[in-house]
Structures are given as C-alpha cells and as structure tokens.
Amino acid sequence: MTCFPLLFSKSSSSARHDPEIDEGIHNVKLYAYKQLRNATEKFSPANKIGEGGFGSVYKGRLKDGKVAAIKVLSAESRQGVKEFLTEINVISEIEHENLVKLYGCCVEKNNRILVYNYLENNSLSQTLLGGGHNSLYFDWGTRCKICIGVARGLAYLHEEVRPHIVHRDIKASNILLDKDLTPKISDFGLAKLIPANMTHVSTRVAGTLGYLAPEYAIGGKLTRKADIYSFGVLLAEIISGRCNINSRLPIEEQFLLERVCMSHILHRIGVSFTSINSYSQFCLFNLHLF
Ligand SMILES: Nc1ncnc2c1ncn2[C@@H]1O[C@H](COP(=O)(O)OP(=O)(O)OP(=O)(O)O)[C@@H](O)[C@H]1O
Ligand SMILES: [Mg+2]
To answer: What is the pTM of this model?
Structure first.
C-alpha cells in the first residue's frame, strides 16, 4: 500500500475574500466560480460527463493545465459555508493511490463545487458492468488488481484516517479507473455533506439499493461493517461481471447475491449448480432439506 503523508500547507487563492471562508479554510484550494466556468466552457453540456445524487459532473481544464472532474452540487445538497468547509478540509487532506484526489472547491454565493482529479477510464459501472459498450478488457489479473486496490483504499479510510471515515456508498459507480486501470474510490466523505433533511439518491439512509448492509438499511446502524458489506457486493460484481440487480433478467436470475448464496449452499451440500435448473426448483429442494 502506498500511503502519502497528510499535507498541511496553507493554500493561497484569489477566490478567498469572505471572512467566514477565511476562518473555515485550512488546507483547501479555493477556486473562483469564474475560473471553473471557464474551465468547463460555461458548464457546457458537451463537457458534462455524468450526473449523480449530488449533482452534475463536468470535465474541465484548469488554468494550470490540469484536467479535472468538476462536481457541481445540486441545490438540495448545499450546506452552510461552515459545515461544508469542515467536511471539505477533512477530505482534501486525504491522499492515497486508491482514493480520488480532491484538488479543491468553490464556495461562492450559493455555489458548492468540488474539483477532483480526472480519471481517464470512467467508473466500473460504465466499463466492466456497462454491457460491453467500451473497449476495455478486464482479465482476471486486472480484476484482481481492482479488488485489491479498492480494499486498500477502504482500509485506509477505515484504519489510517483519524477519525476514520465510513464511506456509506461503496458501489461500482464510485470506483473510478485511471489510465492504467488502477482503481480509485470516489465520493468518500460526501455522505456527511447531505443535509439532514435531504434523502440521498435511492434510499432513506445514504447509500444505494442492492449494496446496503441489512442492519444499516433497516435500523440505520452505521459502522465500518456497512462498507464491508457493500464491498462484498462489489466483489461479487467484479468477479461475475454483472450488476447486483438486473431487472431485465428472468426473475430467478435478477439478484446476484441470491445466486451467490444459492451456489454456496449447493456447494456445501454437494449438489452441482447445473443439476438444478431453476430457482423455484431449488427452493422446493431446500424446503425438503431444512
Ligand atoms: N473524478 C472523476 N473522473 C472521471 N469521471 C468522473 C469523476 N467523478 C465522477 N465522474 C463521472 O461522473 C459520473 C457521476 O458521478 P457522481 O459521483 O456524481 O454520481 P454516481 O456515483 O454515478 O451516483 P450517485 O450520486 O448515486 O453516487 C460517474 O459515474 C463518472 O462517470
Ligand atoms: Mg459517485
């Protein structure tokens, strides 16, 4: 694992002018709204590379020549300056080869914008699980490297960062790939940016259906184990090359975890998967056994 020391240099920026921002900022590079607007050609739709629960993401070239992913937080995910900067200070101090680097942010007027290192090869959900609409090939060595990289990034958040960070939304679209297919976990620390009255993407708790640990989904109990559960789902996706939920498949094949559990049980009782030709048959078979 390559871990870089935390950086604590004060950054200077012409964008800093508000006393509240001056007070709240420690190690974060502040970008002027104008600078980010120029970088994205006025947030042109042609430069938009994605959209998620937090807002839209644009590709842009910064003044210093760096290419960045510029995430414009939506109105609902905007917090007060103080709360926003508290979280951003924490995120921007974190550096690890398997975590997406936050370059800085913009907090002008109502705008809350995050500026990240741009990853050339998109996310796992659009490549490995994207249904073959890309030219990348994931052999076992590459898949293994991705699994280990994600594990390292997660272990860093859980064990090296003080206080530790629970990601709360480990999933394929939050695993980005650089030009060498090194995986980088994105959006860590962002769950805390969600104001209490805002529900995230698809669930009451921060997280995504299909990846949620039962104790977190049902009782809201949040520990690092919730991330480990989601990581397990992600591993099953990486190994099988399919999404954990696919409603276009026949009902008995839609849920990957169900398939994994089923084959595990069959393996333990010494029955080959192919000898049982449907899930319903398996359930009947199961009723007789237990
Ligand atoms: N640093 C980055 N480099 C390259 N592409 C990025 C980067 N960050 C985000 N993207 C692209 O933008 C898309 C949207 O990202 P975003 O994090 O906003 O939503 P999401 O992860 O897909 O979903 P959700 O908000 O539900 O977690 C990603 O799937 C990815 O394709
Ligand atoms: Mg994301």
So the answer is: 0.82
